[in-house]
Amino acid sequence: MKNKLSDLNNHLFAQLERLSEENLKGSKLSEEIIRAKAVTDVAKNIIENGKLILDATVAQKEWSIHGYELAPILPENSNGNGKSHTLYSRNAAIS
Fold first, then answer.
1. Per-residue pLDDT tens digits for 58-85
2. Are 20 and 14 in contact (CB under 8 A)?
3. How far, in Å, CA of 95 to CA of 93, rounded?
4. What are the boundaries of each domain within the chain?
């Protein structure tokens, strides 16, 4: 499956069109509202994931411009004993 954000946009507008149908009433309307809520919940997760990927890519590029080398997976803030992990660059340590 190779969906793009433009596909998500199309699905969201299609859902909006289904909700806008004037002949949709009663239980059919209720079912469509439930479906719309499910679609928007999934869409929010997709958008949040895309934003996270974008933010990580931007951060990686910005840091590499300044001569820093980031680990492929950033560590958590704490290693369990209350001390922070340190990321090292070729120039200086960053806490």
1. 888 887 777 776 665 544 554 455 444 4
2. no
3. 7
4. 5-70
